[in-house]
What does this fold into?
Amino acid sequence: MSEQIETISINRRGLMLVLSSPSGAGKTTISRSLLADDPDLSMSVSATTRSPRPGEVDGKDYFFMEPVDFNLKVNRGELLEHAKVFDHYYGTPKKAVNDALSQGKDILFDIDWQGTQQLAQKAGDDLVSIFILPPSTQALEKRLKTRAQDSDEVVARRMSKASEEISHWAEYDYVVINDDVERCISEVKAILKAERVRRIRRTGLLPFVDQLREGY
Ligand code: 5GP
It folds into this structure.
């Protein structure tokens, strides 16, 4: 008779996975791939005062809002962090994050270094931060141009901002170079997999080990 093997599931706290990079380094592609086959991971949808780009959907890509409504959210304390990035305000709604974490689910954030610093202060060990570097300046510029969603002027401004964003690389837990998107995705997945089994997150380990030691 074959012995039935039980799968053991240990309860754990959810984690906050931050991806930052200069615009055009491939964060969106990486995020989509992570979300596509991982039911325990969801995306934090930010609020922003910038206008939607072609194809962007309100409530899915961002919550697009007027500056006055954004301010209201800030004043009511409804944002976990917020920052001004390229003339517009961006911020992370608090409630969705708290709901997911309390259910042991992980949340993915596409936010800049300013937001990451604020989350690091608030989230402590719940935060795992990854900085994505482009392989070269030329590759970054090419990606921004082929994205074709922004005007030449916007592309030029994003390029001049890239060096400032990159200067914060050392504030992150991990740094991944996006020279090959598939490899980059598998590295980010490996980081997530390892971070999920860190002892400090696995709140169910103590009762499990107690049972083991009692002979169950
Ligand atoms: P984009 O306008 O290209 O969608 O985003 C511009 C920059 O704003 C990106 O670097 C992105 O990571 C950052 N960003 C998007 N949402 C947030 C947010 O909620 N908070 C912060 N601090 N940055 C954000």
About this structure: Residues 23, 46, 50, 81, 83, 85, 90-92, 110-112, 114-115 surround guanosine-5'-monophosphate (CB under 6 Å). Helices lie at 27-36, 67-75, 94-102, 113-123, 137-147, 152-166, 181-196, 205-213. The chain has a mean pLDDT of 92. The longest strand covers residues 79-85.
